[in-house]
Write a structure and sequence with these properties.
This protein is α/β, with parallel strands linked by helices and about 525 residues long. Among the domains are: about 1-15 and about 195-420, Rossmann fold (3-Layer(aba) Sandwich), CATH 3.40.50; about 420-515, 2-Layer Sandwich (GMP Synthetase, Chain A, domain 3). An 8-stranded mixed beta sheet has the order 3-2-13-12-14-15-16-17. Strand 23 (about 420-425) and strand 24 (about 425-430) form a beta hairpin. Helix 8 (about 195-205) crosses helix 9 (about 225-235). The longest helix has 17 residues, at about 45-60. The radius of gyration is 23 Å and the shape is globular.
Amino acid sequence: MIFKSNFPDITIPEVSLPDFVLHRAQELGDKPALIDGPSGRTLTYKQLAGAVEKAAAGLAARGFKKGDVFAIYSPNVPEYAVAFLAVAALGGINTTINPLYTAGELAGQLNDCQAKFLLTVPPFMDKAREAAQEAHVQEIFVFGEAEGATPFAVLLQSEGQVPPVPIDPRRDLIVLPYSSGTTGLPKGVMLTHHNLVANICQFKDIETYGEADTLIGILPFFHIYGMTVIMGAALHKGATIVTMPRFDLEQFLQTMQNYGVTWAYLAPPIVLALAKHPLVDKYDLSKLKSILSGAAPLGKDVTQACATRLNCLVRQGYGLTETSPVTHFTPNDPARIKDGSIGPLVAATECRIIDYNTDAELGPNQEGELWIRGPQVMQGYLNRPDATRAVIDPDGWFRTGDIGYADEDGYFYIVDRLKELIKYKGLQVAPAELEAVLLSHPAVADAAVIPSPDEEAGEVPKAFVVLRGEAAPDELMAFVAERVAPYKRIRRLETIDQIPKSASGKILRRLLVEKERSK
């Protein structure tokens, strides 16, 4: 069966993203749009719109034109939005890059998308110079000043005019974030203005915050979650975003308190810290109304613990880079929250659940791979038609590679990634389920579960655990065994100092798998 959204139909305007996001900038005037959390440096809505126009004119004067690619290799700062929107206003294409990338990884992305210009920050200049030389980037810009780079501020001094650029929202790309998809090396995800505008329209009315609210911009803007859900949607709605360049728990809590943050989009590791870390009690987070967690599964126990401790709503959503990203979203209504669920489908979105062994179409309460169709689905992978065909069928259905099910009310639940399932004597075990159980133990601060090779069973579940208290491996394995079916029991457990994760909070399970296989 095809699951359909329960939310009302929406109208998606045929406009560019800058026009959509800045539609009320002059009206909002001196209201803060973006604040740099550590320094307090502020861009008002009027200043933001003016800076976007000047930066666009400055880039045009340097020969940047429609279809050119502009790489942003930077942590979150207010000017990130200026650069991103200025490039888009010229019909250019942003490619956003993880600031933790090595010079080699950076060069790989710059080469793959043929970036013309690169923007970074002074601490990353050594890597930026090395990568730019290898990828034949024409000019490096920098927030601030650094040898061998043009200050971004120079662009803001432009007295030129922004050339008129016809933009077809449905065909013209705005951003090329990179994703591994369901398999393989990172690939450029081709997203149009329409993809991002549509996605904001799909969830903006579900979210009830407005101009009086302040959001924390801790999730990286290079990642589609921070890019669309925070940077794009919050500016469209006229809220204030307080940016942070990196996550440090104490600084995060201090920033939340100092600016009276009311709305937070987070990843599970941060929600886990808010639920369990003793440092949280030292700060006043009483203005926080709502948390939405995404990028990785969040267990019911952690959800409830965080909500109780902070006296705010804690919800989940779901999406992928290839879907701009949001496909599922839990409403900001206590009566419509189901702990452990990613929520119902957003407006104008359809979903099928497909049996990953037989390709049969499944119904409610049956686990299978989620296939998504809607206006937020990407155009495809850059220069990778074979990879595109492998994930988007002729009818427009995108294969997520994630396994889940829907209940009778149309609320969805993610079990795990298709490629990460553990096969124990032919039976399938989902790591995320076991991780949620481990995280409910008071001595466990973080956990990841992987398949460990076994002669008899093929694979057995092995847990890597970060402790916050005293607990022996046997005790933790017994704790899980009491709560799951016998074939799901954790057979091996190792304590480590830190679970490897991406900037968006996803467990880098492959690193643990490689570590295990190398033994």
